Amino acid sequence: MTGARVDERSRSVAPGGEEPHVVIVGGGIAGLAAAEALVGTGCRITLVESRRRVGGRAASFEDGAGGLVDACQHVAMGCCTNLLDLMRRTGLDDAVRCDRTMWFIGPSGDRAACTPARWLPAPLHLAPLLVSMRHFTWREKLALAGGMLRLARLHPRDSPPTTALDWLRTSGQPDTVIRLFWQPVLESALGESIDLVDVVAARKVLVDGFLAHRHAADLWVPTVPLGEVFGARLAAWLASQGVVVRTGWKASAIERDAAGDARAVVGEGAHLPCDAVIVSVPWRAAARLVSDLVPEVDERLGGSPITAVHLWFDRPVVDLPHAVLVGRTSQWVFRSDSVAGASGHCQVVISASRGLLGDRAGLLDTVVAELRDVFPAAREAILRDAKVVTDPTAVLSVRPGVEAARPQSVTAASNILLAGDWTATGWPSTMEGAVRSGRIAAAGAATRLGKQAARLVPDLPRSALVRLLVGTGRS
Ligand SMILES: Cc1cc2nc3c(=O)[nH]c(=O)nc-3n(C[C@H](O)[C@H](O)[C@H](O)COP(=O)(O)OP(=O)(O)OC[C@H]3O[C@@H](n4cnc5c(N)ncnc54)[C@H](O)[C@@H]3O)c2cc1C
Questions:
Q1: I want to staple 48 with a disulfide (CB 3.0 to 4.6 A). Which of 6, 43, 249, 391 is the partner?
Q2: Residues lining ligand 1, Cβ inside 6 A
Q3: Which is the closest atom of ligand 1 to the Cα of 422?
Q4: What rounded mean pLDDT belongs to the chain?
Q5: What angle do CA 249, 255, 256 make, to 5 degrees?
Q6: How much is the average pLDDT of 263-282?
Q7: How many Cβ atoms from other residues are within 10 Å of residue 146's Cβ?
Q8: Which residue, 392, 427, 350, is CA-closest to 187?
Q9: How close is the Cα of 383 to the center of ligand 1, in Å?
């Protein structure tokens, strides 16, 4: 964006201007995406965030040396088309790298480098992935391929509510395949254990995240801390486009007129008059601000915990950028390439960690022992520091029946829109889901104000073979 354009936007947001005013409450990825989608629509945009930095759950903490460390490693996949588009449009595409190889480390320490083929049409591009998993017998590999096909062909509409684990067992998936493939893959992608997640959510991960396209399973890994990507750079980009970003500003109420429409956002002793509001806060906070528009979400939606175990060794111990550790407590280990000068730092991510929360010391011992088991360099290394970070409601728990409780963006109040990874985007609670929700809400607000905002970009196109195998309906 040129300087001239920035000046023009700055003029257009002068107080008292004619442009309709949209206030976005909540500066997580959903709120930030909503603001980006509204840039250039001729609306004044104010985003208020209660914390010191925007970015929400995609956050970093300061280590002792003044650097930023992500509270929990985040990764996206190639199927996250809207997140990647947002990053491109805001000049953040240099803050992520694309890794095509996923490393699996089996129970006996054997390593499988799984790289989808570039030269085979989807879904056959996954064949090398199956072949390289040496911890499975050929019989198990065939069972896994068959299970993938059956799950992909399961039509969400015809599926009675059931959990992924029940479905996998009923369809004859061997226990080893469930434990060493489905469990780590689905739990990492959905942030919830397979005995609780809806099989329909599991199908979505499989189809959109693996089968649909040769690039669907590409791993997009941040190369700089999230606090820098979203908290600083995206916030600065929005400000340069005329968006007023107010941090440390907690909305305490939304003032409504007799018809229920929003007139102002109230907080911090101030009063922000508005023509539309996008409420992009987590569900419990939304239930407090607009209880009549999201009735009962507080009771019907639940969160799932994710734990990150940060370890600072006296030297680098993990010789891979990241690896899925199957059949262990540690689920995914990441080498911290983004932590400047902290080459001995790595973090282990454990989704659905509710059973592990009581015994921090025991968890640390287990994780360190597992790392020493699979990474020889860790055996000699001295552990200098450790930190266990758990978010008890890291993601929405996508259990059977939860889809019916996720509200649409449009509400009964004509100028109040909802956003957030918990709303009905059709996506699990992820950065992609958050961006989609923000864009959907921005489009709704803009339409209400007679404007047009950036809309969702399409999913990766499905090949003819995928359409034949999976059907043409979206997952
Ligand atoms: C540990 C962990 C690991 C994760 N791993 C991944 C991953 O690998 N890949 C992935 O895609 N996703 C991952 N996620 C999920 C991802 O972080 C979220 O889906 C996404 O960040 C949600 O964004 P959001 O804007 O919907 O909500 P939030 O990030 O929760 O943002 C809501 C914002 O609203 C603010 N707020 C609340 N109330 C008020 C108020 N009254 N006034 C003003 N502001 C308010 C909050 O402070 C917050 O900043 C992970 C999440 C966690 C916690």
A1: 249
A2: 25-31, 48-51, 56-58, 72, 74-76, 250-251, 280-282, 285, 306, 391, 394-395, 420-421, 429-434
A3: 26
A4: 92
A5: 150
A6: 97
A7: 13
A8: 350
A9: 30
Based on the fold, state whether residues 226 and 82 are members of the same structural domain: yes
Tens of pLDDT along 278-307?
999 999 999 999 999 998 898 899 999 999
Asked if residue 303 lies in contact with residue 393, where contact means CB atoms within 8 angstroms, the answer is yes
Look at residue 108 and tell me if it is in a domain.
Answer: no
Q: What is the CATH number of the domain that holds 341?
A: 3.90.660.10
* Rounded distance from Cα 434 to ligand 1 centre (Å): 8
Nearest CA to ligand 1 atom 49: 56
Cβ-proximal residues to 226 (8 Å cutoff; 6+ apart), any chain: 55, 58, 59, 60, 70, 71, 74
Q: Whose CA is nearest to atom 3 of ligand 1?
A: 72
Atom of ligand 1 nearest to the CA of 437: 26
How many C-alpha atoms does 214 have within 13 Å on its Cβ side?
9
pTM comes to 0.94
Q: Same structural domain for residues 206 and 224?
A: no
Q: In which domain, by residue range, is 356 found?
A: 303-396
pLDDT in tens, 202-235: 999 999 999 999 999 999 999 999 999 999 999 9
* H runs (alpha helix) in 192-312: 199-206, 226, 235-240, 283-289, 297-300
Residue 107: inside a domain, yes or no?
no
Name the residue of 32, 46, 57 whose CB sits within 8 Å of the most ligand 1 atoms, as the mutation to test its pocket. Answer: 57
Nearest-5° Cα angle at 396, 219 to 275: 100
Q: Residue 175 C-alpha to ligand 1 middle, in angstroms?
A: 34
- Calculate how far, in angstroms, residue 319's C-alpha sits from the geometric centre of ligand 1: 30
In a domain, 110, yes or no: no
Q: What digits encode the pLDDT tens for the residues 23-81?
A: 999 999 999 999 999 999 999 999 999 999 999 999 999 987 788 999 999 999 999 99
